Batch of 2 targets.
Target 1
Amino acid sequence: MAGSLLESLLGGAARVLSRIQPWHKYPTTLAVPTLAGLRVNMRHENLFDTEMEPTIAAPDPAPGGIDVREARTADGSYNDLSKPWMGMTGARFGRNMPIERTFGEEEPALMTPNPRVISNRLLARKEFVPVPHLNALAGAWLQFMVHDWLSHGENDPEDKFYVPIPEGDSWPGGVMEVLKTLRDPDRPGDAGRPQAYTNVETHWWDASQIYGSSLRRQIKVRTDPTTGQFLTDGKLGLQPNGHLPIDEAGKIPGLELAGVNGNWWIGLSVMHTVFVREHNSVVDRLKIDFPEASGEWLFQKARLVVSALLAKIHTVEWTPALMNSPEGRLAMRANWWGLAGETFHRAFGRRGESEILFGVAGSPVDHHNAPYAMTEEFAACYRMHPLMPDDYSFRSHVDDRELLKRDLIGVARGQASSVYEHASFDDVVYSLATSHPGALCLHNYPNTLRSLPPKRENDVLTDLAATDILRDRERGVPRYCEFRRHMSMRAPKTFAELTDNKEWQKELEEIYGDVEKVDLLVGTLAESQCTRNGTPPGFGFSDTAFRIFILMATRRLKSDRFYGEDFNAKVYTPAGFAWVRDNGLRQVMERHVPALAAQFADARSMFFPWAKGTAG
Amino acid sequence: MSSRIRIPGLVDVIRLDEPAAIRAIVADPRLDRDFKKEGPLINRLLAGRIRKVLRVGSHPLPAVAPREAEDRARLQALLEQRLQNAQLGTPEQRATLAAYVRGEKGEGVLGPTAQAAVGELFAPGYAARKDRWKAARTLDAAPRSFNPLQILWWGLTGAVDRARKTLAAPVDNDPAAVHATGVAVHNLVRGLKIMRGLWRQPFARESLTEEAVICQCAVAPANVLRQWKAPASTLWGEVEPGAITLFQLDAARYRSPSHQIVFMTDSWSRCPAHHWTASLLGAVWREAKASAPVKGGRS
């Protein structure tokens, strides 16, 4: 076992304790060290490289004329200076499972059970099951983050799956066409290995959803929508009313412009708008200390600050809100501040390299067992579409009066920007912050997403639920039981061990027959009602997904130079570094939607429901 | 995790299990298979054992032949070319191996049948015999065993010499054939045992592609040795001639199950049977599936 004696002890203890019962059944004093130990073990056993002699274009040594030692490149190259290609746009997804277990499935298993049957009988929303303790910004935030980390990009238009449609199903045409994921061509050394896929975004936590994953896209978001001129002051483009520009060159009318604007909806519109404004605020602040600095320099420093602020909010605000338990909150705060805590950090600063005592942010970079990359398994675990409601009510933040009611399609793609014609930006934020996301459980998949109309010409009707199932099988993500075994978790032997819900047990048995065949997505949703080995109390997502998160959430920080040795006042500037330390989503909202301050004043987390109406 | 065990005068071994490190170092011309009795005591013992056991007459078996040995590269290339389109065992042998995979035949048939399928490449009509399989097990174990009683027994009875003769006789003393039927065959046998394990899992049987099965069943020798023949400055410190580097291919394969690691296909010491082995494993899996009794079940 690699690492320090402390890590070895934690890893060994976690192994022993996990054999007795899941980590969350122990008291906090044992549960938190067990989690730390599980992470040690997974770093050793669950990181696998798929890059065989990378052939992606050798990055430009001085991309965009910036100093790569102190700024993030547009395409994510040169984060690791010894392997400039690591984590850049076009690098392959890595794996959390042994490579030999990650071959895509073939027929008949690929279509067994039929993904459309699973969609219809196990996933389709019967009635909306909300998460009462969260607000809908939590779901929007998740997608906002995922767009930063990963995308498989456009699918292969030449290669399709044909999913048979079961009898009695109203799906038009008797067969469902699903385009296959575009495969990365074989490279030298790939012989004998499974198919690999590439990430069309940068893999890093670098806010590429805002800034884009290419210089071309970056220039687009740095253009003034009014004049069409490149903004030389380091700011991002916004309309005079503070809204995002419209992507005039895009194929979808009315679609707003962002670094990533795929799968767009009103929640993303809110998050992007707020953080584009935040970027511009950071530029204004830095300009005070560095009046002579160029716009390019200000842009790059502001990007570092905004990226780190997003990482911090995700770590110490969003994740603890979804893992609403003492252990969850402590573990995630310790990830950023260390067990020594925020107060110690503010008083004395970082006093050593230990990530456990002083937090991962600022600790030495370590890629552990494989070069840094997002993984297919991580992407699979972030399939959380049940968070999306099907219906949206936009209300006035002044008196809670309903202004507009729309379905999901009515707030998605180009339709999102039209919502602002009926409700102000403040009203939209207020409406999302006072409504709830859906729970991650069976029978709660938004039906709108199960019948998604074509995005543009030549597209087809899509059942995203069936597609989610098919994607994991296609990309060789092991099914639920095998997945858990590879994560050193207990795998259920029966449907009764998978879920306590008798009705679900019966349905699962009817469709799958054998618990070994249960798909990862279905298993993680079914374990939401399992007291034995399922979702920990207070958690919004499954324990199975959580294991991947504790590995990968830390890795996003631990592998990134700008959250490692270069997370300091010299690289970020003193004002920029202090900005990250002193701000959170609350301060961001205070700056950009001050009219709602009364509504969120009493919210313990910005992802918990805000007060309705004028809130006194 | 790479490591070095070094006790001056006693042992000096660098162990490598990182695929990238193995790929990088394997081409170093100072690392060779010209096992000489030099270096610390245990290194000398190991080198001497390999030289003594893995040979036919005065010729080392190809897997331990020095890089610059006369004709080595030419014979390796010839064999590789010949095996490209060679028969994948006889139909009977494939049927027996498929039956083993399906669990219809016991362990007893596996070794001799696999050995016969390999032997067929060098001597048509090579028969599956228990004494030949026993000889292969002895030859494989002899260079690795550190059991003093076992070594003494072999010394007293001449078992290793006898095993070598048993293996050499049917293949006309061809060192490549003795290596294939006496040493390399054990990797094939391990692979078929893994395949039987996969077959026992009904869902794996249904869902795995042939490629996936080959990937899981094409196993490398657990360890491959090289000896430093010149002083070198390495990541692990200075090394002197006689120091040994151990490529832990089985561990490396777990991280990167590519043919580059399993068969060292990009190296001067690549396995000439890489294509044949993978093809045979695929053929056995196909045959096992094709001959499996059809069962009813839900769809």
Target 2
Amino acid sequence: MTDLTNLTELTIKEAARMLRLRAFSAAELVTAHAERIERLDHRVKAFLRFTPELWEKQAEEADRRIARGDLGPLVGIPMAVKDVLCVRGVEATAGSRILSGFKPPYTGTAVSRLFAAGAVMLGVTNCDEFAMGSSTENSGYHPTHNPWDLDRVPGGSSGGSAAAVAAGEAMIALGTDTGGSIRQPAALCGVVGMKPTYGRVSRYGLIAFASSLDQIGPFTRSVEDAAVVLEAMAGHDPLDATSSNRPNDVLHDFDAGVKGLRLGVPREYYDVEGIEPGVKAAIDKAIKSLREAGAEIVDVTLPHTDYGLAAYYIIAPAECSSNLARFDGVRYGFCQDGQNITESYERTRRKGFGTEVRRRVMLGTYALSSGYYDAYYLKAQKVRTLIKRDFDTAFEKCDAIISATSPTVAFPIGSKTQDPLSMYLCDVLTLGGNLAGLPGISVPCGMTEERLPVGLQVLAPQWREDVALRVARAYEVASGVKAEVASIPSPLGGEG
Amino acid sequence: MLARLGLEPGDEEFYAEQLSGILAHIDRLQELDTDAIPPTAQVVEVANTLREDVPRPGLDQADALANAPSAVDGFFRVPAIQEET
């Protein structure tokens, strides 16, 4: 019998190797995670609910597969799932009261593919309501705490997923990224987070926020782990017409290094307004490390960067106002009765939606309303074209783009909730990747003096996850910086 | 109202102030000349995706109604849509 406390610090690759060597069983691996969750999650609050029946059954099945000699890289690996992804029979609420009690009648494609690959589901992680936010404070249930400093946010919207992986409560967590909702919390929690090219992963079974921007992706504690999870869930799905049937060889040239690659540093991202000195210092060090590893660092420009946030905050709310029209208290979720159907809709949505969701629905319906459509929505779609062209031009001069993932480190809980625009600015370096449909990854690139993680973002041209992963991997190797499990001090003293 | 958000007294002032700040930021889009620029609605190139028009199983009635706040005789139940005259 192995010491179970260390099992929660392994990477997927290490755990898979040890499962095959029978160093421990899948049942023991999931138990180690359940125990760590039991001990710590009342303080981190990464999870909204747990799925013990599923994990027992799936771990047993994983042990049977291992006994049969199944060498799949994800067999028996514990996984957390963001509360926007449907799993049959497991309550899914998108972090919102309006969906309380909703038990999906089907399982989404990304999750079912990971189940088929042998992953073991631990539970459902917290997020900003309908994935709208950058701190997980907009959850209709409770905020999540950053494992590196419990008084700070984990980022968002997939903050529960990032925190779960950073706290050693899960080896894989799934998130979704509409404007940075995987990469930004990955940066703030010191883990790896990847947003694939739009269309790489099927969105079937994802509770939609902004359909032209949403993508599902993994959080892990190594770049290779992220690649393996992505490979398992990616690929064409007849149930999502925007999913692609392109070849899915994301691990192509994974260990080829950066020698001979041109890495672009956009000056607008490098000197973005509000970038903290500690973040900039970490990025400078990362650039140096990549240059020493053989990359050619080139200066590029993304001239419409200053307009990205404005375009995003038209397009995303417009799409959300349409997607969220379905929550009316008739077919599922929360319902507040009224004298007539209109009153019932209004009462249900009044009590069911939180402040940020209401704000975005207002913004979206306004931008789409007749008389304003051309000035706002159409204009934003045209600016989206300009932003996409900026990236196309930049990628003529470089193979990938590198920058900070977030201009700031994790901020104190409550510090931005009264000022929505300051919260929106958290995504200023990530949302361009969504508007242009690019794959992007955030990898840990060290800590500031106050021991808070910084993330390095790598963006690649559409469908070139292999390049983003190769650069991220080369950085991980060259710098020696690895995602660590945060040790969480016990309130009674000692480490958790 | 289109969004059916059920605004209550005080809401308008609360949101008006915040939304004005956001819209002021958004107004910078008007600085750009976009007359000759086509809009982007879909960022990756996907042609119309068709499938064979063959029937396949969908949600059965029990699954479809399982989450309904109120269902009766195989229907979703809602408050009266029209007044009796």
